[in-house]
Amino acid sequence: MMVLAIAGRELRSLFLSPLAWVLLAVIQIILGYMFTTQVDFFLQLQPRLAVTADAPGVTEIVVGPFFGNAALVLLLIVPLLTMRLISDELRNRTLSLLFSAPVSMTEIVLGKYLGTLGFIAVMMVLIALMPLSLLSGGALDFGLLFSGLFGLFLMLAAFAAIGLFMSALTAQPVVAAIATFGALLMLWIVDWNGDSKVFAALSIVRHYEPLLRGIVSTRDIAYYLIVIFAFLALSVRRLDSYRLQH
Amino acid sequence: MTTDRQFSSLVQVEHLERSYGSLCAVADISFEVHRGEVLGFLGPNGAGKSTTMQVISGNLAPSAGRVFVNGVDILDEPRAAKAELGFLPEQPPLYHDLTVDEYLSYCARIHRIAREHRAGAIARTKERCGLGAVGRRLIGNLSKGYQQRVGLAQAIVHAPAVVILDEPTVGLDPIQIREIRGLIRELGGEHSVILSTHILPEVQAVCDRVLIMHRGRLVFDDTLAEMQQRAQMSWLVVGLRNPPPIAVLSGLDGVTQIEDLGGGRVRLRHAPEGGEFAERLALRAATEGWKLYELSRERRSLEEIFVDITTSDTSTDTSPREEAA
Description:
- The complex is a heterodimer.
- By secondary structure, chain A is an all-alpha fold.
- Helix content of chain A is about 80%, strand content about 0%.
- Chain A has one domain.
- Chain B has 3 domains: about 150 residues, Rossmann fold, CATH 3.40.50; about 55 residues, no CATH class; about 70 residues, Alpha-Beta Plaits, CATH 3.30.70.
- Chain B is built from 13 helices and 14 strands.
């Protein structure tokens, strides 16, 4: 109830500012372009696929790489979405409204997180419409499509949790955005240094790729859930520390 | 235990302490606020008023001590305690991108007002705070005075038992100040109000009781009437045609301070003990032939009392303006 009230205001504020609309527009243009190039690529490939036995379908060739690219674009976008969540309230000193209300720190964090997830859901719908448009020309492998969408959603949810925590660290939204971007990029490239198993396990991409190939394993889901819970818990602690000391 | 507290007072602060690092902002403060009382919190800047109010409102955790709101410990059961609290910080916590109606409805929701009572509560609050005409306007476009009223509306929309206002009239024009004061007076009827300020006439205008803080300590806690009485009781201006040496006057029983005004007039401060001191002085003057021609109680302004209390342990050569500004 309280969580929903806070989430509702968060979502409302997002859409009241031009930021949300501009982000949605930019994402749609860039991803739309990426999507059409991918479809083009498939069309060029089609004559050869027709003669190959057991050839990959349109979902595999278009949707998989498309979602892969989408995640990279959104890695740049999500920090801008989450940067204001708490740092704006710190800067405008509006946090005392929530602190003096009968609302717990956990409810505040969950509310803000849920609000962001709401926006991400809107974004996901717009992104999902692109592969779904292929239905006008043929059939899709829905299992593969949904596992890809599910993976993208988990990825973005993890991005948002990290962004929320960074936003709780500073009263400067830009600082929060840069820190979030740095953290996300680091998680993205962490396995570049070789064959280390630890780094591979930490890599956010390595847990994404199986989902794009249609492999839904608890291992990967657990990875994202752990990241989300960890950063939400850290955010709660961080908020509480504003009460304990200034 | 809790029922006991409920009857006696709405807010109880016990041995409250709060420090920021090595800086001690509030040191061992205890006081109570009774039902229906408007409590004025006075003190120069940096005295610890805001810190105390933030602790009572649950925005800051105390370093030591306890705070009870309506009998509920704010640290043990923050949710129950905060439900009975309305807080207007120094800077009103307003979302500038929302309209007044949207904002108040959000405040009503997070204060757990049931959906069916929400519209009524908001309408009532808007009417009380004079916000009826601006409900659909963006908070960011309102003038400072209206923003302050929205801040006040936010603090009372859920009809809390205790309303805490941190310098609610700062930056307002005189007419707005009058209106806000009227509103605070009105609130005092059904809620308990804690009001911090460094504007002394404000305290005289709206408060029943005065607390004065200085350097993190409580240096005065009494009713306003008591404070004024105490002030006028203890100073006498005495005019003598044939004055004895000052030393004789300052040696009188009960004199704590003496000031030579020239021409045989002196200002005496004596321990507050009722009227007997003046009687004794008149008698003495008659027997010793000092030719008493003036003997009057000096009424001191609240400002002088305030300066007196807050500077008593420091050097007194800074002007009251600088000290209180």
